[in-house]
Specification:
homotetramer; about 375 residues; alpha/beta; Rossmann fold; Dihydrodipicolinate Reductase, domain 2; 6-stranded parallel sheet
């Protein structure tokens, strides 16, 4: 079996998640697509690099990306940094001939994203975005059913990614609230995921009407000193029109009191309907309007299809009986990345998916500024 | 269209419910099986009788049952009194040639019930018991699906009727807590319904192991004077074995904190499963274990079938979109009674069903006393 | 007790519902605010008028509104006709000194609605709109909790009224699909209710961005002859901005496959959140973000508050245990109307509420036409 | 930080689960109670031992338990074998001075279990049973709330552990269906867990009335040859009476079509109620009957308390927002075991808990045989 060496850039929350995924891939999948060696981890300071190395079980801890990119035994790097660093790191990695797995959103701006997409397209590398929701079995099943025509013509849908983490005005500033570092707020952080899920299931977005709001307009500085202006949205509301003519309402909120980590989507078609909620990740609800009708009522209703770890192949551990946790979806995403590298197949979700998502986010920002519908400009 | 005259004996809570049902039948059903005249209502005192007459829209209010039974224009009587009076009233009504619609449980004792059942069987009258849960559309649908073999061989089930109305020890005594008046407690009041639902869906009970408990053993007298001993159970737990070999756990509780009016049943068969909860009366959950399996998972899961007012025929008002209320089920039960009278068909649920249910309740009382399984003695 | 005479104009589905409400008020409420006499019903033809009279238990059936309005014993009329007739009937009734209970939406156009609102305001009559959702106990409870400050500052919300009745293109034309008769489609039929619920709970709408769609653009004529163009929307999507600065997404759909009669609202505030769904009308979900926090987690979570018939006063039949049906909410609405008549209190929801709702619907139509945000023009 | 060496005996499904837990402890917890070295794994054949060693990351793979027990660097062993081997392995391990973590049920018979319990009690070793459900945050929260008196006096409860894995008669025999190897069927496999959850939350069981059934009485041999008799139950129904006077119905089923891995418990007390379902492991439903009542209804209802990874301390990764998977509970159980070893505190759940559980299972077997209530004999 081939051995692939992995470097991880950034070892905060999401860096740990990816590392966990690699370290447990052989539990979840048998066989694994490749043997993995965790070669190195890169953080900003020597002290944190050594701690990350020991924690994640890497061979080395470094403080400069080049130290990973220059190694022949590093075949792929994971970009787990704040958004502001994605662009430079990805271009450098691609230039160095490394496969790239980049956290979402792809970049801070559509220009940055397009440059990354072009570089990926010009290479023969697997360049994947961390849209791990595409690896929730219930959403994979949803896509399968839609492709089979279970919904028929889609009329309309609603989707939302709801968090409650910023309702407290005393929560201080962080890079996620800094426009320069993040490029956007709820729209970029949560909207990227929900827009990608919409694209994954229903195809491309033609135009949008968006509203961005910043309800909590100032917050304490990270060091506790006086209030700083918040430059990014904490709520994004969108009307979207899809290429197929269907329309939908989409939300991304950091102020959705009562939600923990709730990505929902509901789709209404002529022949059926679907419902999904990430807070019940093991089930997909499917409604078939057609069916053997009887004089006084058929058996219409939502079926709550069990979608634990049974789909897609290969069958996985710990088995289809058990409720999967959130970490499991990242393991499946990393499994797909490894497979693409081994099989020299195009990554999916690819940097091109990342660019297309960014183009929607960009159009939402433009629409919010001008108060009109904005066509989603596709990279020519 | 034939006109049928109705008398109602007792005008407490349930007497009002039946009267409501008659008065609204032509809203719910079109056409109705017969034109109804509310001839008379009987209560214990002239003052309440007049109030009942005016409230329900009866021609007359009387204080002696005979005043109703002696009238030629009364074709049927509803027995809506405490349990202790069911037996005498029913026998008198049958003797007078009146159809009878009797509240549940049929009587205080299996002997009383059997006498009532015998009299009904010897007549050609429609004699029905108020097992209105048989007229919840979702349970009618459940029966239909079971008869079609959706469950296959039934392995086991659990059923419960849960109320919370007696958790407060300060709630005073009433006829429902008086053994002489009621014949039993939670077992008779709630257990009668849930045992009937079990019989309706799954057939006859072969034997039972029961436990009756009285957690709150004394309560204030109705007049607020000192504590009186409670003679009846406030909780009944049962293991039941059915004629078909399936087994189940059944509960009737007046102490089920957190429940309002919760009759639940879940059935597990080799080919499928069913779930129902009266607190969501418009839906039946059905699981099919069989189906087109795919390599990595089929579409197994509970379907929440819409069962508003769409089943059975005839189509009804206000239409299948709207959540039905509890009163609606009583209207359907009264509709069935009228139909039986008009068509001279045997009532269903009949007094024989009432007797069979009472035989189960009786066996539970015996089992609780002796601590062993008790066969359900069937009337020879 | 005072006796009030009622006339009903139109005896289709909703006319029957109102009549049912009157005929059962004394079951649901004790005492009732007034003794009611169902004086007359008006339909378009003598034959249907007589049938309506007999069905509803009215004294007379007539074919001209004036026959009701000229009677001294008619104190109030219910307008249960297609939308096109509301305006003239209401103005005539008010001119005749009759209280008016008018189906929603108030009229076909904002001009008609404002004329009706002005006439009502200039009178001392109770003029109410059939916004019966305001009488769903769970929504009354929601309003009570919001007024107590349970939500704190409201950030955002989403609301929808979802039906599936028009997904079949073979469903023929009707007055509801005729712009001249109805004034609008899903927006007017369902949007009127959901916009009113939003106003009821959260106050006035400042501006809207709306999109109206007609997915099924032609349908058979009612007589089965060739296709006719559908002139009204079957889907309305709205972004709304409220006077208090909160924002929301609102939908009205006749194409929401999988829904029966689903009015949903979810509100996120700084201190709490609310959820309601008309398909579970007996419960309100309330989330309190504040509370006694413990080191490792408090007791945060949605509480599914029981809201059967317990709120508001007076306590009602058949009691708080039982799931209420949809008809029940109309009875409560009619109870409020009677009370306003008896107490000479302003109706609520009033014609002014009907006008305010119509102004929002109008702004949505304008916004959809121009593709921009439109301020809700308030009648000066 | 202390380093502890671990040996794992048996590397089937559950052996992998425990190994996974150790390998990821430093992700989930920071700091960890001890540094862990996975010293050795023992399986029955050299080939599987080497495969297990490589898969789990152990230093050595061996085929005789003694090879682990004789090593000074092994401080604790996990017994992950079929039930028949628990007794001998545990006694040998305790004799060798090793801490023991033994899969459930503790043994095949109450005699075996008591011998194991005595040996554990006579040592100063941490001897824990894999009752990992005690580490589901929602059940820990349930225990906390019960101890605070939220339920008041407990009246009754129902609990069930429902699987559907054996509904297919073509599923062949295995050690789990062999009485000699397993000691019991659904009762031992699933009943052990649900009885332990009942004991964890509500205390000791005084007496039981049990019914064991074997619906599918023969199955193919593992090699596909002709049918073999199934000697163990596939369904266990129990009535239980607790030391505090409360009563309950308890089930363990391998034939519960429609369930995946569904451990449910509902408890009704005078002051409140609780509901839990392992298929929604992140939430506990709590009902408080008391509270600020208002004239027409308070705010009574079940609160769905969020119980992700927030309880108990220490705060854990990946954070309270994310739905935990089933593996997570095993990690928490192993964390507790390590803590007990490091702190020289008594293990919990201890071998004494395993014995007490086994005594209940034994009484159920006796009761099922004699058809009467059986007192749970406590080891003197």
């Amino acid at each position: 079996m081939i051995e692939l060496g992995i470097g991880v850039i950034g070892y905060g929350f999401i860096g740990k998640v990816h590392t966990y995924a690699y370290r447990n891939l052989h539990f979840y999948y048998d066989p694994v697509p490749a043997r993995v060696r965790l070669v190195g981890v890169c953080t900003s300071r020597a002290e944190t690099a050594e701690r990350a190395r020991a924690h994640g079980g890497f061979d080395v801890g470094v403080t400069r990306i080049e130290e990973l990119l220059s190694r022949d035994d590093v075949h792929a790097v994971h970009i787990c940094t704040p958004n502001a660093l994605h662009h430079d790191a990805a271009l450098a990695a691609i230039a160095a001939g490394k496969h790239v797995y980049c956290d979402k959103p792809l970049a801070r701006t559509v220009e940055e994203a397009r440059a990354m997409g072009s570089a990926a397209a010009a290479s023969d590398l697997a360049c994947q975005v961390t849209f791990h929701c595409r690896f929730v079995p219930a959403l994979m099943r949803a896509k399968q059913l839609i492709e089979r025509g279970v919904l028929g013509r889609v009329f309309h849908f609603r989707a939302a990614y709801l968090h409650a983490g910023y309702t407290d005005p005393a929560r201080p500033m962080s890079w996620r609230l800094d426009k320069e570092q993040s490029g956007g707020g709820a729209l970029f952080d949560l909207g990227a995921h929900v827009v990608d899920v919409v694209r994954y299931l229903l195809g491309d977005v033609r135009r949008v009407h968006g509203s961005l709001r910043t309800f909590i307009a100032e917050r304490p500085a990270p060091d506790g000193s006086g209030p700083r202006p918040v430059e990014v949205d904490d709520l994004a509301l969108m009307q979207v029109e899809m290429n197929d003519g269907s329309v939908g309402l989409v939300e991304a909120s950091r102020l959705a009191t009562g939600s923990n980590d709730q990505l929902r989507i509901e789709i209404h078609g002529q022949k059926g309907a679907l419902q999904f909620d990430l807070e019940e990740p093991g089930w997909l609800r499917v409604y078939r309007a057609e069916g053997p009708e009887e004089p006084y009522g058929g058996e219409r209703g939502y079926t709550r299809i069990e979608c634990m770890q049974r789909y897609p192949k290969p069958a996985v551990w710990p088995g289809p009986k058990f409720v999967p946790g959130w970490l499991r979806f990242h393991a499946a995403s990393v499994h797909a990345f490894l497979t693409h590298m081994v099989e020299h197949s195009p990554a999916s979700p690819s940097f091109a998916d990342g660019v297309a998502c960014q183009e929607v986010l960009h159009a939402v920002q433009q629409s919010s500024a001008c108060g009109r519908w904005v066509d989603v400009a596709r990279e020519s």
